[in-house]
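Many introductory courses stop at the sequence. We go one step further.
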Amino acid sequence: MTRVVFLLLPRLHLLDLAGPAQVFSTAADFGCGYELSYVGEQEDVPTAQGLPIRAEAAWPELDPGDLVVVPGWRGPTFRDSPRLSRESASRLAAHHAAGGTVASVCAGADALGRAGLLDGRRCTTHHGLQDELARRYPKATVVRNVLFVVDDRVVTSAGIASGIDLALHLIAVRHGPGTAARVAREMVVYTRRNGDERQAGALRHRSHLSDVVHRVQDLIDSRFTEPLPLDGLATASGVSPRTLTRVFGEATGMTPLRYQQTLRVERAEHLIGRGATVESAARAVGFQDARMLRRLRSRTSGIRPVPAEDPA
């Protein structure tokens, strides 16, 4: 049995808590063996949405396989963060030191910082708090505009709903991507959103339950700018090229190559939207020149091909 402990601080956002709690509760319903606990600095914890929550004052005994999650709270700056006692900060640090995983949603990253868990690590938070987090914890590396970051069993996520993505990622790591997909499907949410926002556009192809296809997608997601021959993808997934093509098509409606091209085009569109030329965007995502990108943009997005002599 794995225990998931939520540390509740005043003015917490309900979805910061309810999203991850629902993920682990649903996983428990599927037999994954989770037990949820809620502890706080006080027994009656006010929330940002006005609904008070009852918490336990005493922490349960934790094992290295257990997880502690700190939901975020309402406050325009970290200066408005609720008080975190030395005992709670020590509990967070001690659990991590013992081999456990500690996570935060949104402003909850400040609690991890006060426990000394952000120093020397990559982390993230809500986009409106990223600059302040970087100033507050200069020894941390704040990764901007991503859904979540994992660094040495310290897991931080962006605002509000990204806590669901964080929890689904942890389910996928512990129980496989198929289980995470099953939980997401039960919750009627996108499954397996990646931490890096560059893959956000491909979410519509992640609602299946195939472990093999999720693992291949993970590989393509992380290396989509590189040549990825079908034989190599098949070897990495433990199936034949023919089987991979079949199951990938059944799960996503496309071939692995078409999926990789989709990621490339979506990333290129992101770069072009930020001022890059078509030529530079094409090379950045792995094309030798802009001709293929122009053809794919026209085919997938209904965008008229940009003439070769047009630098835009």
